[in-house]
C-alpha cells in the first residue's frame, strides 16, 4: 500500500472548509486528528470514472432552465417551521410525475450549501438538456434537526441533531414534498445523497430505510457513519438497492470511513461503485460526484 500524508495542518482555531462552507470555529482535537490522518491507498482505491470538464458547471443561456425555490414546512418532529430548497426541472408539469433526489449537506452547512458549492440547478439543467440525466426534483433540506438549525457556534456539538434528522426526513420532509409537488412516491423513484456529514447520514438513513430509498450516493462520508455491519443486512441490500455510489478523494483524511464501507461491501459481495479521485475533502469532489451520480439514478 502507498502512504500519503495530508499536507493540511489544522490548528485549534481556523477558517476552514470542512463540510463545504468556510467556518471560524474551535476545532476539536479529534476532528483535527481525523483531517490530518495518513491516507493509505490500496490497489482498488482508484477512479471509477474520469473527472468532468469544468464546462458542465457553467450556466448555459441557450437551454431551458428549471426553478430553484426556498420553501417552508411544519416539522412536527422538531417542533418548529423549517426551510429547504427545491429544484424543479425545466418544463415542470403538475400533470407528470417526477422522481426525487434528496441532497444532504455537511456539518458546517445548511439548506443553501449545495447551491453555493455545486449549483445543482445549473448542473441538472445542462444534463437534462443533453439527455444525460432524467428530469427530476432535487430537495436540499437542513440536516440539523433542532429549533436553531443555523450553523452557529461550535457546529461540532450538533451531532445529535444530525442523527435526529432521520425522523424529520422520513416524517416531515418527504411527506411535504409529496404533498406539494407532483412526484412518484415509491422507493424506486427516491434517491438520497450527501457530502461529509450528509454522506454519513445518507449511508445511515438510506441503507437503513431501503423501503424508502433505492438509490444511494455518499460523497466523502464523515465519521458519523455507522459501522458497516450495522448499516443494513447484506441480503436486504442485494434485494433492494438499485445503485450505491461511494466516493472519496485520495487526499481526504477521512478516507478510512469510506474505505471501511467499501471493503465490507466487497466482502459481502454487494454491488456498488467505488470512486476515488485526486481531490481532498472539498467542494470539487462533491460537485464532481453529484455530476456522475445524477446521471445514473432513476434509470
Q: How many beta-strand elements? A: 12
Total DSSP helices: 9
The CATH level-2 architecture is identified as 3-Layer(aba) Sandwich
Rounded average pLDDT: 90
Helix-strand pattern: EEEHEEEEHHEHEHEHHEHEH
What structural category do the secondary elements indicate? alpha/beta
| Number of separate domains | 1
Radius of gyration using CA atoms only: 18 Å
CATH superfamily: Alpha/Beta hydrolase fold, catalytic domain
Q: At the third CATH level, what is the topology name?
A: Rossmann fold
Indicate the CATH class. Alpha Beta
Helical content band: 25-40%
The low-confidence runs, each spanning 5 or more residues with pLDDT under 50, are 1-25
Task: Break the fold down into its secondary structure elements and pairings.
Layout (H helix, E strand, L loop, with lengths): L1 E4 L7 E5 L4 E5 L2 H7 L2 E4 L25 E9 L4 E9 L11 E5 L8 H5 L2 H10 L7 E5 L17 H22 L9 E6 L1 H11 L7 E5 L8 H4 L2 H7 L2 E7 L5 H13 L5 E5 L5 H14 L3
Parallel strand pairs: 7-8, 7-9, 9-10, 10-11, 11-12
Antiparallel strand pairs: 1-4, 2-3, 5-6, 6-8
Helix pairs in contact: 3-9
Task: Give a short summary of the structure.
31% of the residues lie in helices and 23% in strands.
Describe what you observe in this structure.
- The protein is of the alpha/beta class and 299 residues long.
- The chain has one domain: Alpha/Beta hydrolase fold, catalytic domain (Rossmann fold), CATH 3.40.50.
- 31% of the residues lie in helices and 23% in strands.
- It is built from nine helices and twelve strands.
- It has an eight-stranded mixed β-sheet with strand order 5-6-8-7-9-10-11-12, sandwiched between helices.
- Helix 3 runs parallel beside helix 9.
- It is globular, with a radius of gyration of 18 Å.
Amino acid at each position: 500500500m502507498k502512504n500519503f500524508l495530508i499536507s493540511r495542518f489544522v490548528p485549534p482555531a481556523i477558517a476552514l472548509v470542512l463540510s463545504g462552507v468556510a467556518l471560524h470555529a474551535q476545532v476539536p482535537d479529534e476532528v483535527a486528528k481525523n483531517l490530518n490522518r495518513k491516507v493509505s491507498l490500496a490497489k482498488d482505491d482508484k477512479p471509477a470514472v474520469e473527472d468532468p470538464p469544468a464546462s458542465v458547471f457553467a450556466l448555459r443561456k441557450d437551454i431551458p432552465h428549471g426553478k430553484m425555490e426556498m420553501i417552508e414546512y411544519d416539522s412536527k418532529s422538531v417542533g418548529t417551521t423549517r426551510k429547504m430548497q427545491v429544484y424543479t426541472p425545466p418544463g415542470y408539469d403538475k400533470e407528470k410525475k417526477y422522481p426525487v433526489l434528496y441532497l444532504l449537506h455537511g456539518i458546517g452547512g445548511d439548506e443553501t450549501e449545495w447551491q453555493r458549492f455545486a449549483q445543482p440547478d445549473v448542473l441538472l439543467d445542462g444534463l437534462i438538456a443533453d439527455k444525460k440525466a432524467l428530469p427530476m426534483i432535487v430537495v436540499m433540506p437542513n440536516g440539523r434537526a433542532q429549533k436553531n438549525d443555523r450553523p452557529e457556534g461550535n457546529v461540532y456539538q450538533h451531532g445529535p441533531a444530525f442523527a435526529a434528522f432521520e425522523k424529520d426526513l422520513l416524517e416531515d420532509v418527504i411527506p411535504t414534498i409529496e404533498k406539494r409537488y407532483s412526484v412518484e412516491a415509491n422507493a424506486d423513484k427516491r434517491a438520497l445523497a450527501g457530502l461529509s456529514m450528509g454522506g454519513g447520514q445518507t449511508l445511515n438513513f438510506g441503507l437503513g430505510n431501503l423501503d424508502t430509498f433505492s438509490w444511494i450516493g455518499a460523497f466523502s462520508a464523515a465519521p458519523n457513519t455507522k459501522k458497516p455491519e450495522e448499516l443494513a443486512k447484506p441480503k436486504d441490500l442485494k434485494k433492494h438497492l438499485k445503485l450505491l455510489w461511494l466516493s472519496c478523494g485520495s487526499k481526504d483524511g477521512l478516507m478510512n470511513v469510506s474505505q471501511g464501507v467499501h471493503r465490507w461491501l466487497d466482502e459481502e459481495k454487494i454491488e456498488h461503485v467505488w470512486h476515488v479521485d485526486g481531490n481532498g475533502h472539498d467542494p470539487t469532489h462533491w460537485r464532481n460526484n453529484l455530476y456522475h451520480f445524477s446521471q445514473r439514478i432513476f434509470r
